[in-house]
Amino acid sequence: ETGVTQTPRHLVMGMTNKKSLKCEQHLGHNAMYWYKQSAKKPLELMFVYSLEERVENNSVPSRFSPECPNSSHLFLHLHTLQPEDSALYLCASSQDQGVNNEQFFGPGTRLTVL
Amino acid sequence: AQSVAQPEDQVNVAEGNPLTVKCTYSVSGNPYLFWYVQYPNRGLQFLLKYITGDNLVKGSYGFEAEFNKSQTSFHLKKPSALVSDSALYFCAAVSGGYNKLIFGAGTRLAVHP
Questions:
Q1: Residue in B closest to A40 by C-alpha
Q2: Where are the alpha helices (DSSP H) in B29-82?
Q3: Per-residue pLDDT averaged across B40-44, rounded?
Q4: In the predicted model, what is the mean pLDDT of chain B?
Q5: How far apart are CA B75 and CA B35, in angstroms?
Q6: Would an 8 Å CB–CB cutoff place A32 in contact with chain B?
Q7: Which of A67, A100, B68, B85 is most buried when burial is the number of CB atoms within 10 A of its CB?
Q8: Between A6, A31, A108, which is nearest B99 by CB?
Q9: Rounded to a whole number, what is the distance in Å from the CA of B109 to chain A's nearest CA?
Q10: Do A100 and B51 touch (CB under 8 A)?
Q11: pLDDT (tens digit per residue) in B51-99
């Protein structure tokens, strides 16, 4: 899993904390994605970036704030989260936004909000 | 509404037997279909995809999938299951004009020795 890395792997935070999730891809890809994986629910696409521009915001609450400073790095800034935001957050990348390009996923950050 | 359905929460199969994990889709236009696998504490790994052409697609680890347009299905298959195949399997379809994946809820495959 050296293609897409995510840190931290586990995070516990209170509702008043501010934290950030980091994703880095070493594949030379131009598109990056944030997904939320909750128990017994399909993966939910949160954000899509293409060439460092946000192209999709899937009705995500403003307490989640993405940042893509370059094509290799993607961040998800978190503040004033709710317990229902506890989930596995997955980052992915693909060559570009072409519909035939498979996405490569990182191992995820397991987030627990107390 | 565009969607992907995996009707089985769990599939149980004995090692050495053939396995099938079912997937049906509902998308507008030409379907672009994918299978991913997730092992415990890991991210999703790409297995195979259907874009166009031959309806039988071969992928990683001996898996294959059959695209059936009339039944809007894309079932994942393997002739002989291994215990190491035990994992969570996701079917996905592309929606819209760019790489926006819609995932099914996942099917847990358990292969017993």
A1: B105
A2: none
A3: 86
A4: 93
A5: 9
A6: no
A7: B85
A8: A31
A9: 15
A10: yes
A11: 988 999 999 999 999 999 999 999 999 999 999 999 999 999 987 666 7
**Reported confidence tier of residue A41, pLDDT bands at 50, 70, 90:** confident
Confidence (pLDDT) at A29: 95
* Matching residue, tokens 């898996």: B63
CA distance B13 to B17: 7
- CA-angle at B40, arms to B93 and B8, nearest 5°: 50
Write the burial class of residue A75 (CB in 10 Å: 0-12 exposed, 13-18 middle, 19+ buried): middle
The reply to whether residue B43 touches residue A107, judged by beta carbons under 8 angstroms, is: yes
Q: What is the pLDDT of residue A1?
A: 47
Write down the pLDDT at residue B96.
Answer: 66
Among the residue ranges A26-30, A49-53, B49-53, the one predicted with the least confidence is A49-53
Strand partners, A98: none
Q: CB of B39 within 8 Å of any CB in chain A?
A: no
Sort out which chain A residues have CB atoms less than 8 A from B36's CB and list them: 105
Whole-angstrom Cα distance, residue A111 to residue A89?
7
DSSP-derived letter for residue A84 is G
Q: A31 to chain B: nearest residue by CA?
A: B99
The answer, yes or no, to whether residue A84 has pLDDT greater than 90, is yes
B28–A contact, CB cutoff 8 A: no
Closest of B8, B23, B22, B9 to residue B93, by C-alpha: B23
Exposed, middle or buried by CB within 10 Å (0-12, 13-18, 19+), for B45? middle
Residue pairs spanning A and B at CB distance below 8 A = 63
Instruction: Choose from B30, B44, B89 for mutation: most chain A CBs within 10 A.
Output: B44
